[in-house]
Each structure stands twice: as C-alpha cells, then as structure tokens.
Amino acid sequence: MERWHVASSGAVVALVGFASSAMVVIAGLRAVGASPAQAASGLAALCVVQGVATIALSHRHRIPVLIVWSTPGAALLAGTGHVDGGWAAAVGAFVVVGLLIILTGLWPRLGRLIAAIPTPIAQAMLAGVLLEIVLTPVHGVIDHPALMLPPVLVWLALIRLAPRFAVPAAFAAAMITIGLWLSRHGGLHGDLLPRVDLTTPAFSMSALLTIALPLWLVTMASQNVPGVAVLASFGYEAPWRPSMLATGVGTVAGAFAGGHAVNLAALTAALAAAPEAHPDPRQRYRVAAAAGWFFLPIALASAAITAVVAIAPEGVAVGVAGLALISVLAASLTAAMEAPDGRIAAAVTFIVAASGIEAAGIGAAFWALLAGLAVHLTLTVRR
Fold first, then answer.
1. CA dist., res. 43 & res. 56, Å (int)
2. Which of 2, 115, 122, 181 is most buried per CB count within 10 Å?
3. What is the H or E stretch that residue 67 is in?
4. What sign does the dihedral 217-199-246-165 (CA atoms) show?
5. Which of 198, 285, 312, 310 is nearest to 6 (CA)?
6. C-alpha 44: how far from its chain's center?
7. What single DSSP character describes residue 359?
8. 8 A C-beta contact, residue 20 and residue 66
9. φ and ψ of 65, to 5 deg
10. Structural contact between residues 55 and 286, judged by C-beta atoms closer than 8 angstroms
11. Within 198-314, where are the H helices?
12. 307: which residues sit within 8 A by CB, 6+ positions away?
C-alpha cells in the first residue's frame, strides 16, 4: 500500500510538472529557431536529464531533490525570438549556460555575484520578457475562440477550486480541443515517436549575450535560489554544490539534443517535499525519485505533443503557454515592485525588456539588465 502511495504521488508530481509548462518549453525552443523535430528532441532530452538527475540526487542525499527544466528560461526564449546564427547558435548558448552553472557550483564567489544583483532588477527583466507571451491568450480568444475558450474557462474555474491543477487541466483541455480540430483537418502526420536530433553548437557573441547570460541569470535567480528556499521551508538543506554540478552537466549534455536548461524545482518542489507527499519526512525522497522515474516514459510523448502544437492554428499553443505563465508574471511583478527604493530601477528594467528592442544584434533582456543596473547605481551610489 505504501509503495502504491509513493508511486502515485510521484506520478502526480511528474505529470503536473510536465503538463504545467510543456507548451512553454516547445514555444521557447521554436522561437529561437528549432524545427518541430528539434523541439521534440529538446523536450525529450529535458525529460530524460531531469529524470536521471532527480533519481540520483534524491537517493544520494535522502531528501526530495526535484530537478526540472527551467520554465522561466523557456519563457525567456519565447520572448527572445530568433538570434544571429539561428538554432545552432542557440544550442551553443545552452552549452554555455550549463558550463556557467557548473562554474557556479565550483566557485562560490560566482554565486555571491548573482546574489548581488538586486532581486527587483532580475525579476523585472523576467516580467518584461514574459509580458508578450502572457498577452497571447487574449489574442487567441479573439482569433480562435473555439480552440482557446475551453482551456481559458477550465483554467479560470480551477484557479479558484484547485490552483495546483489549473494549468495541467487547461493543457488537457487544449489538447482535446486541438485534437478535435485536427480530426476535421486531416489529423496528425509524420513520426510520432521521439528521436534524438543532435545539433552541432555554434558560438556567437550575440547569442551569448541575448540567450546565455539572461538564461543563466533567470535560471539561478528564479529557480535554483528559490528551490533551495522551498526545501528549507520543509526542513531540508539542499545539496547546493552537487545539485549545481548535476544540473550543469545535465544542461550541457541535453543541449546537444536541444534542451535549454535544468535546475532545482521551485514551485513543484513543494509537491514532493510537503507532508501530503508522505507523512514521514525521511521517506519523501522516495516520492521525488518516483517522479524522476516517471519523467522517463513521459519523454515518449514529446514528439506527439510537439506535432500537435506544430499543426494547430498559429497562436493557440503559445496562448496556452501564456496561461501557464500568468502566475510566474504575477510573482515576478510582485518581487520587482515590493521594495519602494528599487521600483524606479525595476520599472526601467521592465520597460526595456518588454520593448523587445534589439541593438547590435543583442536582444532586449541583456539591455534591460544593463539599464536597470545603471539606474540602480545612479540612485544608490553616494556622491
């Protein structure tokens, strides 16, 4: 009976984590140049990497260490769009992100440098990038009401009744409505089984500044640091260095197959670390490990889901991804504007990031970070 409880709890953790942001990952990879096959490969690679890392870390440290893909990072990619050098340059940026995460684990001073970036600026940069994709459900309801209204209404109903399951239920509703639409428009075509699509990375300064640096900062500030805090709130001390090394190596390995980044879970970490997962805190690591095992077969669905997203009318899948990011946007805006003395710098950061500008081949996220830091220093450095 206990094994069934552990397995079922792990399955819920894995399915909720996957369904809550799979659309965001696909949208992000496609935005930076991935073909449907490459996006499916990236999604599958992320599932495998996070599954293996979760199993290894949870069993090694006997605490519920849950490793997941970077949802804010995927949203950053969706808002960034095409970069010079195309998909190969994006893959090169993913490799660099993994190396930076490894370096963060090996060199504590680098972690302190990230912590020195004011939280309002980091969160405002993320909020500005999220704004465009969060607006897509609004446009989707107008352009494709029959496809977008069902997931929006499901999300609205469950955000009050069962907030934890609001986005997964909206994802399921979207897949059903898109499936019905496909049944009247020729159905699915092509290979629905996942396959590894390896890409030789290319490296460009534009991609490094537009993708790698913001993706690393967002992954650290919005996932890894909060992930440590969530575990601490349930009485666990996160194994910082082993987690950074495992996720860094996993990010590098997954990058060649199209995965962008993996990290400590933040929001979904509570699903495995809370008393609901297991009454005995010493046994909750088994729930996280079970979730890791479930991530592996879930990878088999990556090609089919990506194929559905690719064939659906333009804007529908991204609209569902926008629904998934509303809570992330709300949290980012709250953190950005919480401290009165940091609001001006945060507002400037948000405006520049939301503008979507590109200068010298470098995207808005990098310029937003620079602008926010410049305003922050102007207002805080003594004359």
1. 20
2. 122
3. strand 67-69
4. positive
5. 285
6. 14
7. B
8. no
9. -85, 115
10. no
11. 205-207, 213-219, 225-233, 240-255, 269-273, 284-298, 302-311
12. 36, 40, 188, 189, 190, 192
Alpha carbons 200 and 256: distance in angstroms, whole number: 7
Q: Check if the beta carbon of residue 294 is closer than 8 Å to that of residue 15.
A: yes
**C-alpha to C-alpha distance for 101 and 104, rounded to whole angstroms:** 5
Q: How far apart are CA 329 and CA 129, in angstroms?
A: 9
Q: How do residues 224-281 score in pLDDT, each as one tens digit?
A: 888 888 888 888 988 999 999 999 999 999 999 999 999 998 777 878 887 877 788 8
Closest CA to 79 of 325, 341, 340: 325
Terminal-residue alpha carbon distance, the chain: 68
CA distance 154 to 238: 35
Q: Which of 139, 71, 168 is nearest to 313 (CA)?
A: 139
Q: Please give the helix or strand (H or E) that residue 19 lies within, else none.
A: helix 2-31
Tell me the DSSP string of 123-146: HHHHHHHHHHHHTHHHHHHHH-HH
DSSP 281: G
Contact of 15 with 239, CB cutoff 8 Å: no
If phi over 0 gives left and psi between -120 and 50 gives alpha, with beta otherwise, what is residue 86?
left
DSSP β-bridge partners for residue 208: none
Distance of CA 96 to CAs 46, 249, 252, Å? 16, 11, 8
> Phi, psi (5° rounding) for residue 347?
-65, -40
Separation CA 3–CA 142 (nearest Å): 47
Summarize pLDDT for 161-191 with one digit per residue, the tens.
Answer: 888 788 888 888 988 898 888 888 776 666 6
Nearest in space to 136 (alpha carbons), one of 211, 31, 217? 31
Closest to 220 (Cα-Cα) out of 97, 324, 130, 133: 97
pTM assigned to the model: 0.84
304 touches 188 (CB < 8 A): yes
User: CA-CA distance, 205 to 52, in Å (whole number)?
Assistant: 32
Residue 263 DSSP one-character state: E
Measured distance CA(246)–CA(105) in Å, rounded: 9
